[in-house]
Amino acid sequence: MKKGSYTKIVATIGPSSSDYKTIKALFKAGVDVFRLNFSHGTHEDHAERHAIIRQIEEEEGRPIGILADMQGPKLRVGTFANGKEELKRGQKIELHLEKFVGDITKVTLPHPEIFAAIKAGEDLLINDGRLRLRVESNNGKVIVAKAMNAGVISDRKGVNVPGTILPINILTKKDRLDLEYALSLGVEWIALSFVQKPDDIHKARSLIKGRARVLAKLEKPSAIENLNGIIGLSDAIMVARGDLGVEMPAEVVPQIQKRIIAACRKEGKPVIVATQMLESMISEPVSTRAEASDVATAVYAGADAVMLSGETAAGKYPIEAVRTMERIIAATESDPDFDSVLNAIALPIEADDSDSIASAACDVARTRGCAAISTFTKTGSTVRRVSRLRTLVPILGLTPDITVARQLCLAWGCHSVLTRDDVEGFADMVGKSTRIARREKLAKNGDRVVITAGVPFGTAGTTNILRVAIVGEHEAASPQDASLKG
């Protein structure tokens, strides 16, 4: 097994990490899923990086997940004759739909969606919230706003609208082109920016058409208000704390993060905690103690994965950042109290065979001291049901589908392996499970392994068997049980 930790690492590829040598070193350091950020770089750049990841996957014989992150709508003010203006507290400024070069009294805001939705008394945040403007009036073409604090407003700075659901398509023209290109490459995950409501997920799915799994980035207050609906329709969630921290008071973001993780665990949906986790390592070779505590907090809460952004994409120390994150994860998971903290609140078990088998497998693995839980899966569903219960026993996800194997790289505690779809009976299933568990160094001869599967074999959604087997007993010889080539 590549590493012993349960919490996964997602790393963003960029200028600091786009060559074969660095990407391979990042994987060796502990990366499970690579993020391609379509806010930057060309299609050719992403294709080259995608090819490198797949080459490394083939060389290492271990599935690697790839996440394509769509840019989403970018709301910005126009330009100024002087490049920037400094507003005093209480000073008024007009924001016009009409395009022109602005000054200290007025500037262009070329976004009709904002004019259609924002009302007097609501706020506009400029440049990541450094300047707060309160709307006094809006006639559909001109917004009059008052500066709530002194600050600088300059060319093309970003605008956040925290208190308003905007009538905006979260996939822009650029995003649709990027989406099709990412899908043509064969990525496993599509991350959606600017999600506000469940219908945003519906619209995106109509374009993706099952070609990849859908991950919703939660970065708007309106998304938190619609949290359960969005989680229900998504395949995974990202806690995008950067934008959340702009649009919501920073002091409430930790409790929102905790709430999102808990809701995702309840539904069995993978959840990533992202943004500024090891921010200082963009320029420094070591993290701060506060950053280490931040990563540990996400691990204690049961996040499936923690993510590095600028640290690996543009930082000076991308490999050191991954190694640091891996060490923090390992130290946190080795805490004697980790299990009790992680499972302080029991999760409900659904009244169906798959969930019952998953729960029983975790109970047996814990009470019998099993080395692994081996799960045969066609879609990954059973693995995710086992994963959500956060039992401190490695999950061996066996699947004949390479896409599913790569998708499971995001699931807490899962070590996914591509197998041949050739299980011929119960004894064959047991033998294959124990052989692969030993080969992948999850177990040794004499160890117990819990096995779950479904009859008839190879049929999705039929998990109905649980068996405890001892590694090394009654195994039929098999020269090869798995291959990334299928």
Helix-strand blueprint:
Elements: E1 8-13, H1 20-29, E2 33-37, H2 43-60, E3 65-69, E4 84-87, E5 92-96, E6 106-108, H3 112-117, E7 123-126, E8 131-138, E9 142-147, E10 151-154, E11 159-160, H4 173-185, E12 189-192, H5 198-208, E13 213-218, H6 221-225, H7 227-233, E14 236-240, H8 241-247, H9 253-267, E15 271-274, H10 289-301, E16 305-308, H11 310-313, H12 318-333, H13 338-342, H14 353-367, E17 372-376, H15 381-387, E18 395-399, H16 402-407, E19 414-418, H17 426-439, E20 448-454, E21 463-470
Parallel strand pairs: 1-2, 1-16, 2-3, 3-12, 5-6, 12-13, 13-14, 14-15, 15-16, 17-18, 17-20, 18-19
Antiparallel strand pairs: 4-10, 5-9, 7-8, 7-11, 8-9, 20-21
